[in-house]
Amino acid sequence: MLEDSNHPMGPNASTRATRTAGRAAPALLGAWLSASLIACGPAITLESEGSDDGEPTAGTDSGPPPPGTATTPPTPGTTTTPPTPGTSVGPLDTGEFDTGEPWLDLPEDCSIFDQDCPDGYKCMPYANNGSNAWNDVKCVPLVDDPHGIGEPCTVQGNAVSGLDDCDAASMCWDVDLETNMGTCVAHCIGSPEDPGCPEPCHSCAIMGDGVLVLCLAACDPIAQDCPMGQACYPLNIGFACAPDASPPDAAIGSPCEYINGCPPGLLCVSASTVPECEGTQGCCSPACPVGGVDPCPGLLPGTECVPWYEEAPPPEQCLSADPGVCVTP
């Protein structure tokens, strides 16, 4: 699951949310609970903050995406929490991760931005508590002839072990829990204060209490133009493709606890903004285009299309329309 450590749950309507650090962040939901869903991939946790008057406020870009301890559901368009524990398959038979040397005299901490581990190692996020959510970083061995950005990859043990066969500029992402295979996705470049991505229409998603810093392709929550098995979700950097960790029967109004806990076309927003929501944290509500005929009353009676961004969407989002979400006025 995905959990945005700096993301409130919901759209940034001018009366409900604020713009933080130059980025618009949704603010309808509170913090996400840290929990995992069965049969889901690793979870990404995002932190969110609420205002003193009970209304969610936009989170900052400093926290984190899947997985550390989640807080509560984000305001419309917020995040998910840690992923479900991956199926452990044990050490790889190929031995490609076995350096034959014990991990001795390695630094206790490292920086994914700086990649400051000793030669032959790289800094990677991992779960240090046996959970299915990334919550820490460590230096791990680089394999011989590692795979580059965009190439298929394999993780050792499980999706949050921190061990994979990608190069130091990337990590194995969107891992299939049965095969332990995924795709090498680029780490962000720059710094935590000024993160960036080398490719256009990509945004730096900082998740999991700041331990996940990935360049994810921007997506359109209305068009839902993500690959099969993924959906367009609001992370702290805007909308990006992430693994769909929703239950098979999830639909409009279904309870959700994670950013990626709703199926394509729906966003997990604060329970208080969705009519007859039975969730304690959040519920799934339709994404909608701002302007023109409002589809929300027909999709979810008692709601209207509220802009996700308080101002215009950031240019790196490459959106064709201003996105919104169906919530109570």
What's a concise summary of this model?
With 329 residues, the protein is mainly beta.
Low-confidence stretches: 4-95
> What percent of residues adopt helix (DSSP H or I)?
under 10%
Radius of gyration: 19 Å
Distance between the termini: 29 Å
User: What number is the mean pLDDT?
Assistant: 73
What's the SSE pattern?
Answer: EEEEEEEEEEEEEEEEEEHEE
For the sheet with most strands, the description reads: 5 strands, antiparallel
**Strand percentage:** 25-35%
Shape: elongated
Let me know the number of strands. Answer: 20
Number of helices: 1
Care to describe what's here?
The strands form 8 sheets. Strands 16, 17, 18, 19 and 20 form a 5-stranded antiparallel beta sheet that branches. This protein has 329 residues and is mainly β. The protein has one helix at 296-299, and strands at residues 19-20, 23-24, 49-50, 56-57, 121-126, 136-141, 152-154, 170-173, 181-186, 189-190, 195-196, 202-207, 212-217, 230-235, 238-243, 255-256, 266-270, 282-289, 304-307, 323-327. It has 1 helix and 20 strands. Mean pLDDT is 73; it is low at 4-95. The two termini are 29 Å apart.
Topology of this structure?
Elements: E1 19-20, E2 23-24, E3 49-50, E4 56-57, E5 121-126, E6 136-141, E7 152-154, E8 170-173, E9 181-186, E10 189-190, E11 195-196, E12 202-207, E13 212-217, E14 230-235, E15 238-243, E16 255-256, E17 266-270, E18 282-289, H1 296-299, E19 304-307, E20 323-327
Antiparallel strand pairs: 1-2, 3-4, 5-6, 7-9, 8-9, 10-11, 12-13, 14-15, 16-18, 17-18, 18-20, 19-20
